[in-house]
């Protein structure tokens, strides 16, 4: 496995952790505006992971 692939895999793991944390924040957010912002961030991170999921090195 190439170094770039290892780094991408590590990044994806970190992003997955961030998504999990944001989902917890989404559950505890009270203001709808904050919920929307958190959901947008989750969507963006999931999109980034989809783009990286096909990475080959």
UniProtKB/TrEMBL annotation:
Top-level taxon in the UniProt lineage: Bacteria
Protein name per the record: Uncharacterized protein
């Amino acid at each position: 496995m190439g170094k770039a692939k290892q780094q991408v895999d590590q990044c994806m793991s970190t992003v997955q952790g961030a998504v999990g944390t944001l989902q917890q924040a989404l559950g505890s957010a009270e203001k709808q505006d904050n919920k929307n912002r958190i959901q947008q961030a989750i969507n963006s991170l999931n999109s980034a992971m989809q783009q990286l999921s096909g990475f080959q090195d």
